[in-house]
Amino acid sequence: METNVTPEQVKLVQESFKKVEPIAPQAADLFYGRLFEIAPEVRPLFPADLTSQKEKLMSMIATAVTNLHQVEKIVPAVQDLGRRHVAYGVTDAHYKPVGDALIWTLNKGLGDAFTQPVKDAWVAAYTTLASVMTEAAASVKPPKKGLFARLFG
């Protein structure tokens, strides 16, 4: 798999994420608060109680960050995630506000440690993984609506 993330950027993402992990619950709160502020149309795609969703988000980010230096090992899981998101109603257009919310959250959580090179590294990492997800999602046919369409479509 082709990646636009350099070894130096992998290191920056991994080192900066170590500073986020201790504040993971607060980071997840910031992320979802920002996401729903900039893209309120995605709110219905999530459960009312975000507790487990926040844990899943931080766990998924941790796994991706940990394996960023060997991204080919996580590609199948990232592809699967992209395909599963189709069933939840996620479209390609949703990936931009998610990325924007992630970068905003990291800026808030890391403060002065969120330098331009760190930001560029996170953008490269997110863009790479989002591309894998959207490519996998494109291979999934959206479910047909309605009972008759599902039965006879």
Distance between the termini: 35 Å
Identify low-pLDDT runs.
Answer: none
Structural class: mainly alpha
Number of strands: 0
User: Strand fraction band?
Assistant: under 5%
Number of discrete helical segments = 7
Mean pLDDT, all residues: 92
Broad shape: globular
Radius of gyration over C-alpha positions, nearest whole angstrom: 16 Å
Taking the sheet with the most strands, its summary is: none
Helical residues, percent = 55-70%
Protein described:
- This protein is an all-alpha fold and 153 residues long.
- Helix content is 67%, strand content 0%.
- The protein has 7 helices and no strands.
- It has helices at residues 7-20, 24-38, 51-66, 75-87, 95-110, 116-138, 147-152.
- α1 crosses α6 (116-138) and α5 packs antiparallel against α6.
- It starts with 6 loop residues before the first helix and ends with a helix.
Topology (SSEs and partners):
Elements lengths: L6 H14 L3 H15 L12 H16 L8 H13 L7 H16 L5 H23 L8 H6 L1
Helix pairs in contact: 1-6, 2-3, 2-5, 4-6, 5-6
Write a compact overview of the structure shown.
With 153 residues, the chain is mainly alpha-helical.
Keywords:
0% strand; mainly alpha; 153 residues
